[in-house]
Amino acid sequence: MQILDILEAIGERARALPETVPLEAVVRVRFVRRHGEVRADVRLSDGRRTHRRAGRGATSREALLDAVA
Q1: How far is 37 from 56, CA to CA, in rounded Å?
Q2: Do residues 53 and 42 lie in contact, with contact meaning Cβ atoms separated by under 8 Å?
Q3: DSSP state at residue 36
Q4: Which helix (H) or strand (E) holds 8?
Q5: Which fold has domain 3-68?
Q6: What is the C-alpha separation between 12 and 49, in angstroms, rounded?
Q7: What's the chain's Rg over C-alpha atoms?
Q8: What confidence tens digit (pLDDT) does each residue in 4-45 have?
Q9: How far is CA 17 from the centre of its chain?
Q10: How far is CA 7 from CA 4, 29, 37, 42, 65, in A?
Q11: Where are the beta strands (DSSP E) in the chain?
């Protein structure tokens, strides 16, 4: 997975956020492999609020897309 794939997926999710959430945010993505499954933990933070999404999949790309879908 390339960093551009991650940014594209996060950008899609950011468009779905309420207008009150600024798009200048800290984005953290963490991948964990457990029991043959990849889990993605995505956090968007503007310094005051944090939006957290989790996803699962067979690959890191699938897990990330599940998290931001």
Answers
A1: 7
A2: yes
A3: T
A4: helix 3-15
A5: Double Stranded RNA Binding Domain (3.30.160)
A6: 19
A7: 12
A8: 777 777 777 777 777 776 666 667 788 899 888 999 888 877
A9: 13
A10: 5, 10, 22, 11, 11
A11: 26-34, 37-45, 50-57
